Amino acid sequence: MTWLITGGAGYIGSHVVKEMADQQSVVVLDDLSTGRADRLPTGVPLVVGTVLDRELVDRVLSDHAVTGIVHIAGKKQVAESVERPLYYYRENVDGLRTLLDAATTAGVSRFLFSSSAAVYGMPDVDLVTEETPCQPLSPYGETKLAGEWMVAAAGRAHGMATASLRYFNVAGAAAAELGDDGIFNLVPMVFERLAADEPPRIFGEDYPTPDGTCVRDYIHVEDIASAHVAATRRLAEDAGAALVLNIGRGEGVSVAEMVDIILDLTGRTDVRPVAEARRPGDPARVVAAVDASAKELGWSAQHGIRTMVESAWAGWCLRHGRPG
What is the rounded average pLDDT of the residues 106-126? Predict the structure, then answer.
């Protein structure tokens, strides 16, 4: 099989490409708005463009004889989605619709969609299962849920094997050069504050959790990549697959605990975080139930929290020219 990986030059996408390219043929489509061509392994074809360009997508599918698609491209900043909802619906929903339309026309028989735990909103449960009601709080989360619906509907109508993977909180790097360039996730946000000689910020210390800070399920990006390999293998073997799965570790870590780990590993134990007001829409606890992904994919996360932070720090230091 040949797999098209959209968004394959981005942070998560490049890890998926690295993992998949070792085992099968892949081609990348990326507009490079947040991705970097130098993240890609030697020999992996890169087509620069957007999934909104139907003519380009048709050409890529034909020229590379694509038989399966891993769709990671999309906009993913929650706050930005609140400010620019129509932009997010165009990029994430209409982009996916265009890609699915091209895929079904070309006879592509396998489709894996990059979804998000943001589809759940603020679940009041200890562990979030795939059956937990989805009540997204942001346009970003809404676009991901709408994407899952579209993928499932296209699969049913056109005999396409499908999977939607709901990522939880991604961190870490397989190699320093593949690290997260963004500053919108907790780990790089703390790095940026430390680099500016400012204390990390914790938004809310009065949640109904053991230490009063939000609890999240953090997963190493290498585990995300291995989950994609397992999912594409399942899709290749099971023409009737129609999967929606959580991809997490199944273990909660509070924001305060994560900040303490970062301060310890960066040698900044002299710094203490500052508490600020809660951010609107932040749920107290979101931790994945992972039984279904283990059952359906034979997959489970292998990396721990300290490994995530160590690898993320090495990458951040490399990109900013600082000693690690």
Answer: 94
Residues β-bridged to residue 28: 5, 46
Which band of pLDDT confidence, cut at 50, 70 and 90, is reported for residue 183?
low
pTM summary value: 0.93
- DSSP per position, 98-147: HHHHHHHHHT--EEEEEEEGGGG-S--SSSB-TTSPP--SSHHHHHHHHH
**Cα 160 to Cα 146: distance, rounded to the nearest angstrom:** 18
Q: Give start and end residues of each alpha helix (H) in the chain.
A: 11-21, 54-63, 78-83, 85-88, 95-106, 139-158, 186-195, 221-237, 255-265, 291-297, 305-320
In the set 140, 167, 207, 218, the catalytic residue is: 140
Residue range 172-216+250-320 forms a domain whose CATH class is alpha beta
- With a pLDDT cut of 90, the percent of the chain lying above it is 77
Please give the CATH topology (third level) of the domain spanning 2-170+219-247.
Rossmann fold (3.40.50)
Q: What is the mean pLDDT of residues 70-79?
A: 92
Q: What ranges do the domains of the chain cover?
A: 2-170+219-247, 172-216+250-320
**Phi, psi torsion values for 116, nearest 5 degrees:** -155, 150
Structural contact between residues 25 and 181, judged by C-beta atoms closer than 8 angstroms: no
Is position 167 annotated as part of the catalytic site? no
What's the pLDDT score for residue 323?
66
